[in-house]
User: Fold this.
Amino acid sequence: MPNSRTHDGDAALMRRMADRDETALAAVYDRYAGLVYSVALRVLRNAELAEEVSQDIFYQLWRTAPAFDPARGSLSSWLLVCARNRAISRLRGRAAEPVAELREQTAVLTVSLEDDLAQAQQISRVRSVLEKMQPAQRQTLELAYFEGLTHTEIARRTGEPLGTVKTRLRAAVEFLKRALNA
Amino acid sequence: MNGHPQFEEDLDLYALGALDREEAQELQSHLETRRACTQKLEEARARVALLALAAPPEGPPHRVKERLLKQVAGRRPGQRPARLALFWQWAAPALAALS
Assistant:
């Protein structure tokens, strides 16, 4: 398979994967493994587990590629959502939950992550937003996102009043919404 | 979602998974009766998904890709690629020597 085809867009790569083209899987892996692994490692803080989660996700992607419908959600969002959900399940010691079939995907990123430059730009953008957030808000938001904690679980973890946690998290998501929509 | 600002504000918290069970169930019930809210929930999910990019960038060791491709090759339907690969590893030099 010519190397130039590794520059295919996500939809084209997924069509090739549906046709059982392993070079397409390798190209998708090269494109997104860094993002997937980074999320898994941030959640789990354990390289070995993060490797397992990453491999599981790409293997599931390979198995369910024929169900991929780009109109229902982007590949990058599916991978990011799966990386977080699977890693949190593992963190909590739950049996690995089946990764949602691709037809179940619902998040549609409004940004492209299909190449290194686009990924670097979006990483910089998101990190810039979080750096402008009040530290306590950011910490609460990261507990919710990377550890999958609810309001009550965060309050229990930090020892802060539930009302404080709710106010802080609401402020954090509103800040995020305004900044990302700007 | 018009007339329900509280639910609208909660969509991002719901997408984040931060609502406690009762709050999440209440919002789910609301969503079932307000199809128009689905679009706003999708927007909230897209925003929340971007938080993944806040993870410190790390690259997986190359062995992860090797294991993945080996796993895929080993389970290709209707074929036995691992055995075929071993066969060709042995057979190719032998055939070359014969030619």
User: Anything to note?
Assistant: Chain B touches chain A through 38 residues (CB under 8 Å). Confidence is low (pLDDT under 50) at residues 78-92, 94-99 of chain B. The radius of gyration of chain B is 26 Å.
